[in-house]
Design goal:
The protein is α/β, with parallel strands linked by helices. The protein has a single domain, classed as TIM Barrel. 28% of the residues lie in helices and 13% in strands. It has a six-stranded mixed β-sheet with strand order 1-2-3-4-7-8. Helix 2 links the parallel strand 2 and strand 3.
Length: 229
């Protein structure tokens, strides 16, 4: 039987010293993992609220923690090229000595698209980019050097020295399943816009990340048993 894993979303919408103190407290309490957002802006935030960049924040946390796993909930293909995403994942995995989990999503935030000055992709476009991003990231994290897709492609790719975890970092994913022919990366198509997890060996089995509360709340009670899945 697979042991229960208990992780905590500690949104990086706090001053840096407050946020890292909270992460260290979560680790000390015995929880198994910490997850962060990947947004430029967020609908729950005021313009003057802090919202630190996700991978940079996790890289710093990797240097200051010793046991707890670290992950993105979830990285956006709209914000990042697939190769840069793979290299960022490899780097945090190296810095954490193999404690990184890569969560990838469809990246459907209207505010993020507006901040980048790009048109909001359709649900079908988001799904196609999500699927090809997942495939390319998987290829390069496993040591592949080329990938050809209709939206993303690359030749001569490398992310040496590669991941600490083999054959690559554990991966999770979420995509929008709101169209008749949903991507095979998703679950069963839904009549309305929903978030569903893809298959994964490590997935935080809670609701959609969009429901995360505005402020990270203080964790007061450790789990009875904190074991990795």
């Amino acid at each position: 039987m697979t042991a229960l894993r208990v992780d905590v979303v500690v949104v990086q919408n706090l001053p840096w010293r407050t946020w890292i103190a909270r992460v260290l407290e979560v680790e000390a309490l015995g929880y198994d993992g910490v997850w962060v957002w990947d947004h430029l802006v967020h609908r729950t935030q005021e313009p003057t609220d802090p919202l630190h960049e996700g991978f940079t924040t996790l890289a710093a946390a990797a240097a200051l923690t010793t046991r707890i796993r670290l992950g993105t909930l979830v990285a956006s293909p709209v914000l990042r090229s697939p190769l840069l995403l793979a290299k960022s994942a490899m780097t945090v995995d190296q810095m954490s000595d193999g404690r990184f989990d890569l969560g990838i999503g469809a990246g459907g935030s209207l505010l993020d698209s507006a901040a980048l000055g790009i048109a909001q992709p359709t649900a079908g476009e988001l799904a196609e980019r999500f699927e090809q991003t997942v495939e390319l990231v998987d290829v390069v994290l496993r040591g592949g050097t080329s990938y050809a897709g209709s939206l993303v492609s690359g030749e001569g790719m490398t992310i040496a020295p590669g991941c600490v975890q083999r054959p690559r970092v554990p991966r999770t994913g979420r995509a929008l399943c709101a169209w008749p022919a949903a991507s095979p990366m998703c679950g069963t198509p839904s009549p309305r816009r929903t978030c569903r997890p893809t298959r994964s060996s490590r997935w935080p089995r809670r609701g959609c990340g969009c429901s995360t509360r505005r402020r990270s709340r203080r964790v007061a009670t450790p789990p009875r048993s904190a074991a990795r899945c």
